[in-house]
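Appendix B. Raw example, untouched.
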Amino acid sequence: MTDPGSAQAATDKAFMRQALAFGARGQGTTWPNPSVGAIVTQDTADGPVIVARGRTQPGGRPHGEADAFDRAGPQGAAGGTLYVTLEPCSHRTIRAATPCVERTILAGVRRVVAAMADPNPLFQGLGFALLRTAGIAVTTGILAKEAHATHRGHVLRVTRGRPMVTFKIARTADGYAGGPGGARIAVSCPAANGWVQLQRAHHDAIMLGIGTVMADDPLLTVRLPGMAGRSPIRIILDSHLRLPLSSQLVKTVAQVPVWVIATEAAPVDRETALVAAGVEVMRVGAGPDGHLDLTEALQLLGMRGITRIFSEGGPTVAEKMALAGLLDEVVVSTSPNALGQAGIVAVRPALAALLADPDLYVLAETAFIGHDHFEHFTRTG
């Protein structure tokens, strides 16, 4: 005989997986809010069925729960169950008069299943308490680990004041990201390049160091068919404001924003020229090496609402960020093809040592995308 408790737990996990997957589709479009997934189900003679799915909409409003209730209709959620990937918000803001807790109570659901609590200590658990006070059964912690990974950018912004950073680099079979003297080389196969484009679309911003920009003159947009509109903000770490006005980034600033972060000592005339061209320039303090303070730069981006950054900034920037404790995810793809001569080392020694330390990073996943082998490391803390 099947244990009803285990059957319910399996059902809850199945619907929560769907909520997580549906919510993740909006990543990169909802900042400064997380992309929350929500599913409303109703019990039938044949078991529970989905009556509505919702996720946080572009710009962060409406939230996932509100979107699901809107799609369910006035009475569609009454007596049903709400599956949601993050604790429903319980506080009022200028932008939203009705918190999701109130929407949930008014919708008439009998049960709420949530993956994780609000990471903000000011409100953590308050939404759950209000729902229980209203007589709604609440189950929490369903697929909490997966939800934390999905909402890691939001969690870090709320708890540490900075966005999540994913660093991706491609290397040849003998370990190089560039040719002699920094010459640009083709490393990734078409399928792997497509994966990178998709990752860009699911992050709030792409971030590079000025060295990579000067060497490659990249465009940094999403080039998948029909997805140009998902191109995220392009952020350049440029301590001394060397970004050329003739670069592809500046020429296309009207289509996709470009933010440049420089030190306080960077030339004012360079800032004036870039701003006149449509680039937004921000300044932070400098570290002992005269380059911008990476921690301060990420704190500034967190204040601007950025939650998820995809960094393609090159080996030097990656190593500096890792040493500062600022790399949360590291993806290394390795081509089966060798360069055959000395070039730019993709994973520098300090970063390699950090990735090999089990107290700092774990190898979360390995896979092949096309002909390239991918390793995905995630920071433990």
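End of appendix B.
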